[in-house]
Amino acid sequence: MSSSPTVKEQVTAGELAEFLDSRQQRRRLLPIAIGVGVLAGSITLLFRWLLSLGDSLRTGLIEWSWQAPMVGWLLPIVWAITGATLAVWLTRRYAPEASGSGIPHIEAVLYRLRDLRWRRIIPVKIIGGVLAIGGGLALGREGPSVQIGGALGGGMAELLRSGPRERLTLIAAGSGAGLAAAFNAPLAGLVFVLEELQRDFRPSVFGAAFVAAVVANVITRLFTGQLPVFAIPDYPIQPLSTLPVFIVLGIVCGVTGVVFNKVLLAMLEGVAQLRPRQKLVYTMLTGLCVGLVGWWYPTLIGGGHHFTEDVLRGQIDLTLLPILLAIRFALTMLSYATGAPGGIFAPLLILGALIGYGVGETTHRIAPFLAPQAEVFGVVGMAALFTGIVRAPLTGIVLIAEMTGNYNQLLPLLLACFFAYAVAEVLRDRPIYEALLRRDLRHTSSAHVLEEPVVVELTVAPEAPFVGRTIRELGLPPGCIIVRCRDGNREWIATAYTRIEPHMQLTVLVAPAAAHGLAMLQAGCAAPDRATH
Question: Same domain for 220 and 278?
Answer without folding.
Answer: no
